[in-house]
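Problem statement: downstream parser choked on a complex file, so we are re-checking the raw output for the fe (ii) ion run. The parser issue turned out to be on our end (a line-ending mismatch), but while we're here, posting the original submission so the record is complete.
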Amino acid sequence: MTREDALNLLKKYNESEALINHGKAVEAVMKAFARYYNEDENYWGNVGLLHDLDYEKWPEQHCVKTEELLKEENVDDKFIRAICSHGWKICTDIEPKLQMEKVLYTIDELCGLINATALMRPTKMEGMGVKSVKKKFKTASFAAGVNRDVIEEGSKLMGMELSQIMEIAIKAMSDVASDIGL
Ligand SMILES: [Fe+2]
Ligand SMILES: [Fe+2]
């Protein structure tokens, strides 16, 4: 699947700019981690871009509906499994096993936290450091919908310190800031 195909598919089922921007943010971070681990950037990026494909129209069937939609597009099982595993213990029982899956599981919620942090700052992503995100991470009332436990558990699964994960994610989102509304 090309990036263009993936983006067209995302737009086919999503009109919300916030959701499209979230998909693009997760894409950018997935690509940064693919580079870090020497993996396929395009593949990891597309998994990120499409991870919430069903969320706008079928929030009650999150991940389950995506499996159906992607099968119609003849997407391979590995791709589908990776996407479904981001809903582990929330809407699926598919545990993240591959590194790609562990990264997606961890950074999905983290992207939400970084996005919320950016929206509070006059300069948005510009000049954002790990410190400010860490502070927001510890303030449970800030962006309360962001599940900190998932991020922490994901960091353990990945075998990487949370600070380093944050650093890579902040950099990746900064690089595409204008394209994700930040
Ligand atoms: Fe999701
Ligand atoms: Fe998401």
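For whoever reads this later: Residues 51-52, 55, 62, 86-87, 108 surround fe (ii) ion (ligand 1) (CB under 6 Å).
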